[in-house]
Amino acid sequence: MAVVSTPATLERSVPVMDNAEVLRIRNDFPVLNQTVNGKQLIYLDSGATSQNPLSVIEAEQEFYEQRNAAVHRGAHHLAVEATEAFEDARQTVADLIGADYSETVWTSNATEGLNLISYALSNAALWAAQGRGNSALKGLALKPGDEIVVTEMEHHANLIPWQELAFRTGATLRYLPIDDAGRLSLEQAAGIIGSRTRVLAFTHASNVLGTINPVRELVALARASNALVVVDACQSAPHMPLDVKELDVDFAVFSGHKMLAPTGIGVLYGRQELLDILPPFLTGGSMITTVTMERAEYLPAPQRFEAGTQRISQAVALAAAANYLTETGLDRIHRWEMDLGQRMVAGLEALPGIRVLGPAAGEERIGLAAFDVDGVHAHDVGQFLDSMGIAVRVGHHCAQPLHRRLGLTATTRASAYLYNTTDDVDQFLDAVAGVRAYFRA
């Protein structure tokens, strides 16, 4: 893996976080200082939505108090300051992921980013057929006989847009299967990713299994087939160092609300040469150079894909979140969460009647664990834990095909972040240990 160190390597090179530091970090998060059902809140649902530190909340508030205006459109003082804050935020987030400024596109969330790529690729065929755009655009146009490859562990956001792209273009959608432990077989992948593959889309880290996928090896298979590589980084960008250039991917997406920022803001990374030739997804103001009553000419990226009034305050807040993560150290956060994840999995595996999805204890995974309690529905497990002040996720986690592959309809998922302690995990495990007895399973 290009961006994930082994636990042994991290132990030698990274100052280790501890519970005392995490408790100091927790003081930065106002929402965590409350009780739920008479118990101190233990928040283990960051895989769905993380909480916001004061610096992020204040950054958005300060924008509205001091420089609220439309960006790119005004010559007055507030508009200039708003534009500077907006574009400075873009540079900050680009630096976080090793991208160039003009390769970083604001979206509402990762789902929009994936749909943007999907629709831009289907529009490529229309533009190429009519002689519009760059001559290289024809090479991106999908057609019958072409193949789009995903994996069996994908979140719906990285599956349905590709299903629809296949429908619109006549291409075929294929998938890389997983084994019972939630791992991809590179041998099988090599037999599926081939000369017809035009797009390979996969998650960097599974939001259900905790699996960290072998990005470098999968990219190598795609490069051998001259296929585009799209990575869902929703569960990696908030939790570990991420360098999109080192990973050699063509596109990557992630959401702000999973990495200490507000909802309504996401990021699409794309190679400059691809973004500049792809047709836009949404059209309107702020993304054009010249407009007549018959046609329009479009700006280069990133503005090419940012029609209309943008998520200005949210972008500023996302930059504050990026700074918070950088100052804490994403390598340190990753090590701490890996330890918490191992503690969760080992503890769950020791309980009778509990089935943990994904890699077993001792194997590499991110800091989350999805599990099934024999004889108790996931929603009942979630309500039982909530009665003890413990917030977890229940359901299929927007991954129905994955659950179906594993013979399940729903699971309970606990996901840790930089503000969780080992005591949080231990209290969670103690609570889970009482579930089956409470429901007489």
TrEMBL record:
Its EC number is 2.8.1.7. It comes from the Bacteria. It catalyses: (sulfur carrier)-H + L-cysteine = (sulfur carrier)-SH + L-alanine. Its cofactor is pyridoxal 5'-phosphate. It holds the Pfam family Aminotran_5. Residues 42-428 form the Aminotransferase class V domain. Belongs to the class-V pyridoxal-phosphate-dependent aminotransferase family. Csd subfamily. Catalyzes the removal of elemental sulfur and selenium atoms from L-cysteine, L-cystine, L-selenocysteine, and L-selenocystine to produce L-alanine. This is Cysteine desulfurase.
